[in-house]
Amino acid sequence: MKKTLPADRSMLKVSMALLIALFFGLMMGVSDGIGAPPNSAVRADGDSLRICTVVVAGNEKTQEAVILREMRSQVGQIYDSRLVLADQKRIENLLLFNRVEIMPIPTDEGMSLLVLVVERLYFFPAPVLFANEHDVEKLSYGLALIHQNLFGRAISLNAAGWGGYNPGGQLQLRHPWIGGSNNLFAQIEVFWKKRETHILITDRFDETHRGVVMAMGKRWGHHFYSSVQAGYRTIEFPAEYDRSITGGDTVEKLPSVGVSLRYDGRDRLTYPKSGFYLEGYGQKIIGNMDVKSIQCGTDGRIYLPLGAGVSVAMRGAADFLLGDQPQFLWQSIGFDERVRGRFEQCAAADSRLLGSVELRLPILPIRYISLPPDDLLALFAQEMPIGLSAGIFYDGAALWQNQSPLQKAEWLDGWGIGLHFHLPYIHLLRFEAAWNSRQGKPEYLLDLSVWF
């Protein structure tokens, strides 16, 4: 298995400077959303009526304010169907509803907007079943207690425990809106888990990870987020590996502080087809033996609709480890990030580059189904989305060491096709076949959620 792949310091600094400049340039140059500004009188459909009322219906548990704060269409503005469609998609992205519709209704006073929502099940015990490292042969299973809408305010609480591959547990609380007009959010997570190591200089062994991570941030408008994080985690290694991995300690203590900036203008989080996403992050980690490291990187994604529901999705991401570079902090391929077509290939280094492009094609447009009212599960199964899409994709990745030239990095790539099943609650199930230039037989991949 490959462990090292390739940038010299000057190239790394230039690359990071360009990425940072691109990020802040987009942040400064983009308005709150793509298209007309909030008070625009530009009309997409020639309708000159002003919005006179906004009425929300169907929200038995969810507070009306949670829905209205996602809308840029406000009373007194000129009705614009493009803004209304964007509002609908942002409400869908709360992931609190099976279906959202916004209906414009002309009246003598102006245009009235009727926001119809169908609430999904918020509080439930749920089985835990997931594939680690995107590998269905590495399944974990257990039980979770989930509340996605505490007090009707979109506050989420998740307590879960699981066994099988990489057993563990977590308790996570996220509040998306604190302080009213201050638009603050906060999150805390406590976790414990065993993880098969990503260190590739030895046979793989189990590490034990424990820790707590806290974040506080601000939402600026509808798409831009900034946050600061602080965390403390430990990694426990088997005694036989301690000297070669950590210099003699069986437990590595890793306090950290960091910042992140994110612009999220995707139309639908569960299967984006238009808009773009851009994130930049950096965190300082202080470990045993005077280890001082900085992890930083950026992730950019763009989604271009071509018409008739067809879209091209593109992603480029880069991650770096600066300062001290213990191998347990290296970037990797073949674990959380993989290349379809090279799914079993593992590599690790201190710097990483990722790229993907995917053509998304609708086959069966999303339909909404409901169980009969007299069914025992009818309360939880109204207006459930069902659909089918296809994808044609290409993935690529490279890793390198800072002291080595980037030109020597090996580019790992693969391509393939797949079927994407749109399903209620789990959102997406993907079945894909992937190839690369070195193999004739395809890899068959089964995974949950959109790739990017």
Task: Please give a structural write-up.
With 452 residues, this protein is mainly beta. It has two domains: 9-26 and 197-448, membrane protein fhac: a member of the omp85/tpsb transporter family (Porin); 31-119, Roll (Ubiquitin-like (UB roll)). Helices cover 10% and strands 53% of the residues. It has helices at residues 9-29, 64-68, 81-92, 242-246, and strands at residues 51-57, 97-107, 110-119, 123-131, 139-150, 155-164, 168-178, 184-196, 206-220, 224-236, 251-264, 275-286, 292-307, 310-323, 331-333, 347-349, 351-369, 384-400, 412-423, 427-436, 439-448. A hairpin with a 2-residue loop joins strand 13 and strand 14. The chain starts with 8 loop residues before the first helix and ends with a strand. The model is unreliable at 1-47 (pLDDT under 50).
Give a brief description.
This protein has 452 residues and is mainly β. It has 4 helices and 21 strands.
CATH structural class of the largest domain: Mainly Beta
Average pLDDT works out at 85
Number of strands: 21
* SS-based class: mainly beta
Strand order of the largest sheet: 4-5-6-7-8-9-10-11-12-13-14-17-18-19-20-21
Helix content: under 10%
Rounded to an integer in angstroms, the radius of gyration calculated over CA atoms is: 24 Å
What general outline do the C-alpha atoms trace?
globular
Question: Mind summarizing the main beta sheet?
Answer: 16 strands, antiparallel
Looking at the structure, the CATH topology of the largest domain is Porin
